[in-house]
């Protein structure tokens, strides 16, 4: 997965249960909303939609990673905006991680999935 969006992220869909199973992102690009295909397997028992307000943007993500059932996975994920936090999605505990946008905003995601999400990173845009 390697997606850099348009003007802004408007929605994130997560499928999850014990871990983060899949993710899809919707962007506003030239006044139109475009949704990516999902990454991972959307087999999770729960599907959660994060809808951002027009003046809201993502400023970071945090969670837990670890080996679960012989696979390295993102076990829990929280997304943070300039106004609120969403999550955690997934219930697995392991070593924590935190990726702040360091004074900017998240404009895209990159990652990997062999089935479930096993790596997830961010692209950041700053005002500089």
UniProtKB/TrEMBL annotation:
Keyword annotations: Lectin
Pfam families: Jacalin
Transmembrane segments: none
PANTHER family registered for this protein in UniProt: OS05G0143600 PROTEIN
Species for this entry: Triticum urartu
InterPro entries: Jacalin-like_lectin_dom, Jacalin-like_lectin_dom_plant, Jacalin-like_lectin_dom_sf
GO molecular function: carbohydrate binding
Domain Jacalin-type lectin: 1-126
SUPFAM superfamilies linked to this entry: Mannose-binding lectins (SSF51101)
Protein name as catalogued: Jacalin-type lectin domain-containing protein
